[in-house]
Amino acid sequence: MQNNTKRILVVDDDLEILELLKAILLREGYMVVCAPNSTEMRHALQKWKIDLVLLDVMLGYESGIDVCQELRENNNVPLLLISAIGSDKYRIKGFNAGADDYITKPFNIKLLTARVAAVLRRSKRSASIEYRTKDINFEFLGWQLNSNRQELTNPQNVQIFLSNGEYKLLTALLLNAPAPLTREELAEHLSNENEPITNGVSLSANQSRAIDVQIGRLRQKIEADAKLPKHIKTVRGQGYFFATQVTRVN
Question: Is the Cβ–Cβ distance between 35 and 11 less than 8 Å?
Answer without folding.
Answer: yes
